Amino acid sequence: MIGLDTNILLRWLLDDSGVEDNAPEQAKLVARVILESGDTFFVNHIVLAETIWVLRNKAGQSRKVIEEIVSRLIASANVEMESGETVRRALDAFVGGKADFADYLIAEVNAAAGCSTTLTFDRKAAQHPSFSRLGK
């Protein structure tokens, strides 16, 4: 198994070869390695959260499009997602909620570790039952 960094995963998901600081062949190289190598690629929570942040905030993708992208990653035969069920629950909350994906992932990881709630100051995250807002 081979771990993926955020920049590799993004090059696979987006055709950003026209961006000035990227070598024009990076997207093609990444696609070839991932699709033709026969290896399994690991996507950890940090890489996934960073990737979704870029897709949402830099690439302007909707929650629904992000859900489709992550669902395809989870279903990919050559991609192993860290705690796939935890990611799926966080993704479902993200699609139906107002907070960032990372907030929901934090709550789901904490719940999987046995936490009864996740304390936060974030008003948007606190709207989800996995969170408890500290202060008013």
From TrEMBL:
<dbReference type="InterPro" id="IPR029060">
    <property type="entry name" value="PIN-like_dom_sf"/>
</dbReference>
<dbReference type="InterPro" id="IPR002716">
    <property type="entry name" value="PIN_dom"/>
</dbReference>
<feature type="domain" description="PIN">
    <location>
        <begin position="4"/>
        <end position="126"/>
    </location>
</feature>
<dbReference type="Pfam" id="PF01850">
    <property type="entry name" value="PIN"/>
</dbReference>
<protein>
    <submittedName>
        <fullName>Pil-like protein</fullName>
    </submittedName>
</protein>
